[in-house]
Amino acid sequence: MRVHLSAVYRLVVPFMLVALAMWARGFAPSLDHEASILLENLPYLLCAICCGLGWMFNRLRLALAALASTGLYLLIKLHLQVSLSESPAGELYLFAGLALAVGVAYLLVVRDYGLLTLRSLLMVIIFAGLLGLCYGAAEWIGATDAAWSARFAAPTHDDYILSHAVSWLIAGAALLAIFLVLARDDETEGALFGALLAGFCALAFLHLEQISVVMACAGLLSVGWGLIRGSHAMAYRDDLTSLPGRRALSERLQSLGRHYAIAMLDVDHFKKFNDTHGHEVGDEVLKLVASRIRQVGGGGTAYRYGGEEFCVVFPRKSAEECAEVLDQARERIANYEMSIRDQGRRPVKAKEGTRRRGATRLSAASVYVTVSAGIAERDDKLQTPEEVMAAADKQLYRAKRGGRNRVAWPGSRK
């Protein structure tokens, strides 16, 4: 499994929102009456906004997280403003802790299937069922012997009200969230981590004044941030390869300085490859190429340009400086042995496959993919990014005419 270290920032934003909410809590008591009323009702407004965004972008998990965060705020506001030693309040507090850990863990492991589908309805039913089980478990623990009550309900410290058992459950859900953020490189898991962290602070430090409202706002802002970032990814990231797409490239080209290079890459014989092995295998080839050029060095950023074509932008680099790192990426792609799963779509005769070059060089059970690349840099003749890209395209076709599986730039001999 590849760890996306770039996804670490998705954990930093929720931490900052919760820390900012904790800092802002100190100013809440000094608010006047009208501002206090506005603050108390702010979570409802944020919840409505998050649910609306979830509906627009088909993000059921985050919509459920927004509703659950608001539900936790209501539970604290209406039922937990009394001594937790009283039986109803103590059981509801335990239910809140269990539901927070179990509910977020469930939303982390399931996938979004849209809103108006049978799978989404099943997701909602299971989520509600898990909350019901947590409520039943809280009642059962409250009615059982003192040992169970001490383990799950007794506060750890005067300044930290959650019990050891519930704390460990929430810690487990947090570790799962961190793992999935790094593994999936997706906005949803980071937003759910923020909702979990805010809910944990609201319960663990329940004795602090105005803690529930500021943490509800922090959790809902984290969910809203995930929804907005997710919509941005939908518009700017290619779904198949997870690389930034054409729109992201267009914006990047507008912000380049006066010294840069651009490379255009193309999968060799990709149409013939699709005709031979099918579009599903062709998609796997594009994912393979994307994963290799994403790791290109030299400060380059890879983009999906369209079809089987990719673009890499190198700020503050010359074409010759970029050639070496691109050639290394090309070599990594060419040396990767890709297994063909659908044997029925392979050529009937082995000789037919071995005669094909580039992306269709076959062995008994595998295929080797190759790419060609062309590089151009900005100079006195090529003043705009569009002109540099056109020159890189010419170098790409030069590499193809020269035999494919190679990198060409104005100073190269091949």
Automatic annotation (TrEMBL):
<feature type="transmembrane region" description="Helical">
    <location>
        <begin position="92"/>
        <end position="109"/>
    </location>
</feature>
<keyword id="KW-1133">Transmembrane helix</keyword>
<keyword id="KW-0175">Coiled coil</keyword>
<feature type="transmembrane region" description="Helical">
    <location>
        <begin position="212"/>
        <end position="228"/>
    </location>
</feature>
<dbReference type="GO" id="GO:0052621">
    <property type="term" value="F:diguanylate cyclase activity"/>
</dbReference>
<dbReference type="GO" id="GO:0043709">
    <property type="term" value="P:cell adhesion involved in single-species biofilm formation"/>
</dbReference>
<keyword id="KW-0472">Membrane</keyword>
<keyword id="KW-0812">Transmembrane</keyword>
<feature type="transmembrane region" description="Helical">
    <location>
        <begin position="36"/>
        <end position="55"/>
    </location>
</feature>
<dbReference type="InterPro" id="IPR050469">
    <property type="entry name" value="Diguanylate_Cyclase"/>
</dbReference>
<feature type="coiled-coil region">
    <location>
        <begin position="319"/>
        <end position="346"/>
    </location>
</feature>
<feature type="transmembrane region" description="Helical">
    <location>
        <begin position="62"/>
        <end position="80"/>
    </location>
</feature>
<dbReference type="InterPro" id="IPR000160">
    <property type="entry name" value="GGDEF_dom"/>
</dbReference>
<dbReference type="Pfam" id="PF00990">
    <property type="entry name" value="GGDEF"/>
</dbReference>
<protein>
    <recommendedName>
        <fullName>diguanylate cyclase</fullName>
        <ecNumber>2.7.7.65</ecNumber>
    </recommendedName>
</protein>
<dbReference type="InterPro" id="IPR029787">
    <property type="entry name" value="Nucleotide_cyclase"/>
</dbReference>
<feature type="transmembrane region" description="Helical">
    <location>
        <begin position="7"/>
        <end position="24"/>
    </location>
</feature>
<feature type="domain" description="GGDEF">
    <location>
        <begin position="258"/>
        <end position="412"/>
    </location>
</feature>
<feature type="transmembrane region" description="Helical">
    <location>
        <begin position="161"/>
        <end position="183"/>
    </location>
</feature>
<feature type="transmembrane region" description="Helical">
    <location>
        <begin position="121"/>
        <end position="141"/>
    </location>
</feature>
<feature type="transmembrane region" description="Helical">
    <location>
        <begin position="190"/>
        <end position="206"/>
    </location>
</feature>
<dbReference type="GO" id="GO:1902201">
    <property type="term" value="P:negative regulation of bacterial-type flagellum-dependent cell motility"/>
</dbReference>
<dbReference type="InterPro" id="IPR043128">
    <property type="entry name" value="Rev_trsase/Diguanyl_cyclase"/>
</dbReference>
<dbReference type="GO" id="GO:0005886">
    <property type="term" value="C:plasma membrane"/>
</dbReference>
